[in-house]
Hints:
The chain is of the alpha+beta class and about 325 residues long. The chain has 12 helices and 6 strands. It has helices at about 1-20, 60-65, 70-85, 90-105, 130-135, 135-150, 160-165, 180-190, 200-210, 230-240, 250-255, 315-320, and strands at about 255-260, 270-275, 280-285, 290, 300-305, 310-315. A 6-stranded antiparallel sheet has the order 1-6-2-3-4-5. The radius of gyration is 20 Å and the shape is elongated. The two termini are about 30 Å apart. Mean pLDDT is about 75; it is low at about 1-5, about 15-65 and about 320-328.
Amino acid sequence: MKVAAAGAALLLLIVLAFLAAATSILTGSATPGGMACAITPATTASRTAGKPVAAPLTATSLATAMPLDGEQQANATLIVEVAMERGLPARAAVIAVATALQESQLRNLRYGHLDSLGLFQQRPSQGWGTREQILDPHYATGTFYDRMLKVPRWEQLPLTRAAQAVQRSGFPDAYAQWEALAQRVVDALAGTCVTLIPGEQVAAVITYAHAQLGKPYVWGAEGPASFDCSGLTMRAFQSAGISIPRVAADQWRWGPPIPSGQEQPGDLAFFRMGPDGPGHVGIVLGGSQMIHAPNKRTVIQIDTYQRSDLIGFTRPAAHAPTSQPDPR
């Protein structure tokens, strides 16, 4: 089991490294493989890669669009404002908001693990500042950005890697679950669409699926404790801000189809064609491997997709209509 787990972890690292290397430029949401905005504000400021957020903050749109209370909204607003003050790209604010959601639920906590404090659970003993400084949200946010800007090519890293390079968390993959919500927050506050790197989107899907390894298969289940095959794929894509149909047959028709041999990480692999469509689906990792929920006799696991009942592949990321993602 230890060997299998180590192999699965190595495979995931290889996939994420491939994605980071393959996505060295930003693409617009209308580009195949790109990602549309999670929401579309009434007034959208123009933005190109590397340029700062320029639109005014809109607290009203945040209050109506986000599942956050007053304290969380105030802290999210401050994080975006500091990014604007510094002329940072909106992507910086997305990383910072997602990190604060994971570390403190966007609350300025006066406690934490060991001497961790504040929005980002920074530690005086690790050189983040004094207790009083860290409990100043403006200071804490500024120091987060200071350290992030020192990370080489941070704009082009998957969110989990960018956040982990700053935070050194014991649970680095956990940041991915907040990316879709963080993007919605920044979209609503800044009045702009944050264009995601295609690999970011795929990495979020794979990271979510990988976090479910070992959970049981239950027919009709959609998480978080158990899944069936299409429930897992649906939730994985929701975590990246993409809505796909619920059942495997509909996911197959939703497409678009990808020729065999051209499949990539994040594509869907389908199996067992029946009268209504495929009866099984998994998420391609690369190297002929996939994550899937096989059946009630076993658990979510990594397997080969090179099987006799393989039907074909689709690429939901190229379809790319987005929705209000499920933050779970």
